[in-house]
Amino acid sequence: MKMSPEELADLVEAHLDDRFHDECGVVGIHGHPEAAKIAYLGLYALQHRGQESCGIVSAPGGAQRQSVHRGMGLVADVFNERILGQLEGRSAIGHVRYSTAGGSSLVNAQPFCATTDAGAIAIAHNGNLVNALPIRRELEGRGAIFSTTADSEVIVQLLARSREHLPEERLIDALSRLKGAFSLVMMTSDALVAARDARGFRPLSLGRLDGAWVFASETCALDLIGATHERDVEPGEVIVIRRGRLRSLRPFKKEEEKFCIFENIYFARPDSNLNGNNVYTFRKELGRTLAREHPVAADVVVPVLDSGNTAAMGYAEESGIPYEQAMIRNHYVRRTFIEPTQSIRHFGVKVKHNAVRGVLNGKRVILVDDSIVRGTTLTKIVNMLRAAGANEVHLRISSPPTIGPCHYGIDTPTREELIAANHSIEEICAMLGADSLGYLSLDGLRGCGRALKHGFCDACFSDDYPVATTEEGPPPQLSLFRSVGSEDD
Ligand code: SF4
């Protein structure tokens, strides 16, 4: 069967995309002579949080003028020395954004800029606002004209209409109307403001660099730029930095903390610390717990690269079964392929992964991954391990079955598309072609989570959603208003 280039691209896209995805990462810096370059490096470290588009806005202190550059693609492709040289000023904010398929549009790239009667502002937002749609409709009914299809623009529109005086007061006024998840940075002509919703769904860290203040979604960005990690922005906290001085505000009603546990399971980089907890250490503990819950006689523990790496190490340590990297990942996969010959079948998954026959031949394999979304990728990987000589393949998943979509800033398939929402574990095991399948239990996850010493959201595993949605199953941030269409690129 001959595949067209489009079918090939879809196949590869499907196996690249069979995961939950973070939708955004943000950085902000105040009081540094090379603020835009620092923002660029910060975004570089946060690239895993969004690969569709990115942008940086900078501002000379005290001036109303802002310089902006946004583009489609990776940070390293969108910016160069010349562009960064044009982004003058001692303050800058930046954003990386993930796209759902078909939702690519430069118009939605952040940071968003606006001129209000309180001055020029720019905002970069990570999260998902569950009541953005009714608020947008209300504002449009009062004559507002939206120029993007992203829910984040609702914040800008509300802020512009606020009757408060200072920009940070306007921001608080706007955010008070919104439900859901926001970890954001806002730059004004003389201040940098960071805010986190009262439940603290998404991470946001505060650091210092040569006397400047830095905000970043994850501490790995602070590490790259050489900043010290001072602390995290607390859930419900608004931090205003003006003329080098930090002011902490607590304007929102206190809520139970609901940090996204999936950040610890998969999204965040293992070298990041989230709310004071190292991601790598947490993932290893998930693997250890998984080994206790689902032991099986086997010869090797093999991770799905890179998502299962750390949990597989934990599983191997706890079980005493050797850890082997029996799959090799091609790190240079892109969407553009030359059509293969008709004789090369099922090549799709091999573009990204290949099995090491010398390790797998004749072995009983425990294959560890962090989650199963649709199951399309794992089916191919299980087949690949068998083709490389594995006698048995036992799948172990370091999170509970994902039975619901996320409404708080993660791009997820619909409930209908989630394999665990529609099939028993026995059925999934058969569909994936594995000899056995074991998921970490919800109790096991919550047991590991208790060590984090803060509350967390596990709604996509438990169906216990901490913030009710105003509409049945609202789409994620990036497709919220997709019907508006795209001005491109
Ligand atoms: S529903 Fe899942 S992905 Fe979304 S915030 Fe909660 S734990 Fe994270």
Q: What does this entry look like structurally?
A:
This protein is of the alpha+beta class. The protein has two domains: 21-258, Aminohydrolase, N-terminal nucleophile (Ntn) domain (Glutamine Phosphoribosylpyrophosphate, subunit 1, domain 1, 4-Layer Sandwich), CATH 3.60.20.10; 277-457, Rossmann fold (3-Layer(aba) Sandwich), CATH 3.40.50.2020. It contains 18 helices and 25 strands. A seven-stranded antiparallel beta sheet has the order 4-3-5-2-11-10-12, with helices on one face. It has a six-stranded antiparallel beta sheet with strand order 6-7-8-9-13-14, with helices on one face. A hairpin with a 2-residue loop joins strand 10 (205-209) and strand 11 (212-216). The radius of gyration is 23 Å and the shape is elongated. Iron/sulfur cluster binds at residues 201, 260-262, 406, 408, 410, 457-460.
How many domains? 2
**Which compounds are bound in this model?**
iron/sulfur cluster
* Oligomerization status of the protein chains: single chain
* SSE-based structural type: alpha+beta
- Rg is 23 Å
Q: Topology of this protein?
A:
Elements: H1 5-16, E1 21-22, E2 24-30, H2 35-45, E3 53-59, E4 67-72, H3 75-78, H4 81-86, E5 91-97, E6 112-116, E7 119-126, H5 132-141, H6 153-161, H7 167-176, E8 183-187, E9 191-196, E10 205-209, E11 212-216, H8 219-225, E12 228-232, E13 238-242, E14 245-249, E15 259-260, H9 261-267, E16 273-274, E17 277-278, H10 279-293, E18 300-303, H11 309-319, E19 327-329, H12 348-352, E20 353-355, H13 357-360, E21 364-369, H14 376-387, E22 392-397, E23 410-411, H15 419-422, H16 425-432, E24 436-439, H17 442-450, E25 456-457, H18 459-462
Parallel strand pairs: 15-25, 18-21, 21-22, 22-24
Antiparallel strand pairs: 1-23, 2-5, 2-11, 3-4, 3-5, 6-7, 7-8, 8-9, 9-13, 10-11, 10-12, 13-14, 16-17, 19-20
The structure holds iron/sulfur cluster.
Iron/sulfur cluster is lined by residues 201, 260-262, 406, 408, 410, 457-460.
